[in-house]
Specification:
N/Namide_PRibTrfase (chains A, B), globular, 21 strands, glycosyltransferase (chains A, B), 468 residues, 17 helices, nicotinate phosphoribosyltransferase, TIM Barrel, seven-stranded antiparallel sheet, 18% strand, alpha/beta, homodimer
Amino acid sequence: MYIDNPATYTDYYELTMAQGYYLAGMHKKRASFDYFFRKIPFEGGYVVFAGLQELINTLQHLTFSQSETEYLRREKFSDEFISYLENFSFKGNIYSVREGEIIFPGEPILRVEGNLLETQLIETILLNILNFQSLIATKASRIKVAAGEQSVVLDFGLRRSQGLGGIHATRAAMIGGFDGTSNVYSARRFDIPAGGTMAHSWVQSFDDELTAFRTYAKYYPDDTVLLVDTYDTLQSGVPNAIRVAKELQEKGYSLKAIRLDSGDLAYFSRKARNMLDQAGFHDVKIAASNQLDERVITSLRTQDAPIDIFGVGTKLVTGHPSPALDGVYKLSSFGGEPKLKISENIEKITLPGKKKIFRYLNEDGTFYGDAILLQDEKVIERMHHPTFPAQKSDVRRRRHEEIMLPVIEKGNILTPELTIEAISAYRKERLDKLQREFKRLEFPHIYKVGISSSVMEIRDVLMKVHKT
Amino acid sequence: MYIDNPATYTDYYELTMAQGYYLAGMHKKRASFDYFFRKIPFEGGYVVFAGLQELINTLQHLTFSQSETEYLRREKFSDEFISYLENFSFKGNIYSVREGEIIFPGEPILRVEGNLLETQLIETILLNILNFQSLIATKASRIKVAAGEQSVVLDFGLRRSQGLGGIHATRAAMIGGFDGTSNVYSARRFDIPAGGTMAHSWVQSFDDELTAFRTYAKYYPDDTVLLVDTYDTLQSGVPNAIRVAKELQEKGYSLKAIRLDSGDLAYFSRKARNMLDQAGFHDVKIAASNQLDERVITSLRTQDAPIDIFGVGTKLVTGHPSPALDGVYKLSSFGGEPKLKISENIEKITLPGKKKIFRYLNEDGTFYGDAILLQDEKVIERMHHPTFPAQKSDVRRRRHEEIMLPVIEKGNILTPELTIEAISAYRKERLDKLQREFKRLEFPHIYKVGISSSVMEIRDVLMKVHKT
């Protein structure tokens, strides 16, 4: 489960509103909320959706234990309401795109339906789970794209992750395309391959670097990665690593890699590669770490730095420099009526009604653009730009996929739990269908997301009602 | 406790190194590690140290349960080493500055002593706890400084916090100077005041805004904050709030506040204040939220926006735009000998030996500057710039405080557990002694941190040893 007490991993106002609805006798009325985000982080062209399975599991366990109801009693919530919560469990429906899906701004990628109380109560934890994991899966995907499919990218971020956020940062990184992690806790919890070898302190704890390397190789002959920059990378680190590589070879083993953790990685990796190659160790890989992100890795790639393995920490797990996805959860219908929130900021005006998403395809199967339709629309002729309706696209001749599926119905889970590996494979399959212009790390092409004429009409009618 | 299985909330290499030390028979040798950071986040002038109590509590519970040793067995760790871990507990010493202390780059503010295995093994979780909480306490302090002592600043960040990082983000925000939170989970866990009233969905769930406001006021007459921007702030929101304020007044209650969550907060707060004042509601406060941080708040302050309460979310809890403190944990002595790590980057060269910190004071009791000395030094005449020794300061006539204290000795906790309130009060007391030039949000004055001649000599001798 996500957390031991999910019902109180929430904002206080979810509880005051829930009680208000209960006392006003409104809590059983039907409501529906949309989850969507407004801005792609990292100035990128897409987001990888992650966190869904954690959300599903958490909702199954969202109940109020005695310690929680005692807290509510101390906070002066009414006995009547607390009795209601004692029997609370989520009995609503959830429709969502699959975990690992490629998503875009403004799309209602997840919809929650149920009674007003339950749909409101889960807002904060839903946002907390989906916003963060989608953020990190997106960052991981960008880093993997920069490093290239043939490279190995490893999560080294736990020491700089935002407290216990490290748990799900690693989960999300794997969904986004990472190959492994140093994080033992998450590896155990999510069945992810973990690994790691030595820190500078290992080298410092021996009288000399060579003894430090030899000792490590003695105990881990089939999994030795030597950190070569404690004293002097080229004068001491790499030559000592080569000596140990020879000694391992004589015993029938191979040195796996050397790791560079400071200095100019392009320069040192090239020099080290030459030294290793000249000694005949073409198969000893070069790993690099130290403040890496997709931009540094791109720069290393364009310089042809011979790095095989990238260890990425801080900037991956914190989503630097965009440490939050701005996902929101907005009421879209209540008591069977579509609902709207108006704002001074045009892009903050919501889309009313229960909606679904069609993803239109190009001839070759790649993604053309997405349309937001009302749930009961079967087919549309064209889609409109959400805030500039004169701009529209004809979609009559295009194939489409309906990308939202029911995942919870009346509180029951409908979808099997997937492994992280399977979710990551789905992400890859989908990302392969996104044309490369949208995957560009900087100034990507903007993916088309439109709304149907019906969605537009309902919004415009409601705007008039509230503004007069 | 910080987490249910703290022993495996770690990087894998801590375990491979620990086993290596154990198998090589080195694990009982004495070692000492320093925790310090290199760069102040947010381009600020100081950092607020936070997380210490969580670290202390966690170390008390850092043991290997059966499920953890089973994992290690599957990962092919040796039976001998696993037996050792089954009886493991941290029996070392920790010296640290107090939680809430004002700290600066390069200072070894926390030192861990013990055997090599235990001091190495706790690295990752120590960094995870201290880096994040110090980051957020620092951000919170900056926001409180910008808002001013008389303002109320509230943490609204849970929905955008980095997953479970939200738990300690709130704890750290309170240490840094926040007055309350919306986060119910952390409020319960750390005994913090929590609060909150309504979202836009509350207003949308009623036929009209006035009914929504009235219903809320009916159930919470002594704690009503009305969100006024769902449809039209000045045409509808504020006038409806004033009607409800009158109705509450007739029943002997007072409307507590209105909240603005979009649009130009300077403009709307001024207009709303006028409307409230003209209706006689001088005591109804104005709360504002929406992408706030210390810079936006400073701007609102300079425009004399009449805002009493600031709700700060995303940018507080994620430490935007510097989402990590770069704290590190470096070996400083081993087997009784001082140890050094060299680097191509001068500022990454470590300070060897067991050290302490003297904080020198000005005549008026404010902080003058800090010196890093060897543990056995009693008095020094001058301190030197760490990387430019020709720059030095005479400190002979200055009073000083020794700011590091023993907090754990042979595994036993020496210090009483403080409330968050007490830690925050200490932070305030110390911050008051930092001259305002260092608290400036942009281009702050740089606080003096020097090293003693003895520290410098040991470093320089060891540099020569390793570089020849």
